Amino acid sequence: MNTVRALLTAVLVVLAAPALGAKYYKWVDENGVTHYDTQPPRGTSAEEVSTHRSASSDQPEALERLREQREAAARADEAARQQQARQQRAAEQPDQARQEECEQYRRNLETLQNKPVVRVKNPDSGEMEVIDQERRAQMLERTRAAVAFCDGRPAP
């Protein structure tokens, strides 16, 4: 029984092979109807159609772009959820939320003043990046102003 089945499968494969290698043509007739056949029509131009499917040369790049887009969307969703949670907490417990925010500003100021190299998370890629001196100076200025506000003093 298995031998008959294997033989039948082999015969079907052999018979199907010419169809897999055959050329097919596509054309649209005068009524706008699209036709496909193994022979091109006489007197009408036809387009040769590929019958085998292979991966396109840009498929790996397209898949990588799709993966990156999905990761970026997931990061954006998470950031939005965190922002919403912060806003809800600030509405429910404003004093505690403000105190925690001020403590974070103080830690950030300490890092900006004392660490020779400072890295921040890129919101687009999610990767850590070293900040340049110009950006560091801007961050220092904003953070000092926030800490001064937290301490009830005028901004420097």
From TrEMBL:
Transmembrane segments: none
InterPro entries: DUF4124
Stretch list, region Disordered: 36-101
UniProt feature, compositional bias: Low complexity: 81-94
Positions of the DUF4124 domain: 12-62
Top-rank taxon, per record: Bacteria
Stretches with biased composition (Basic and acidic residues): 62-80
Protein name from the UniProt record: DUF4124 domain-containing protein
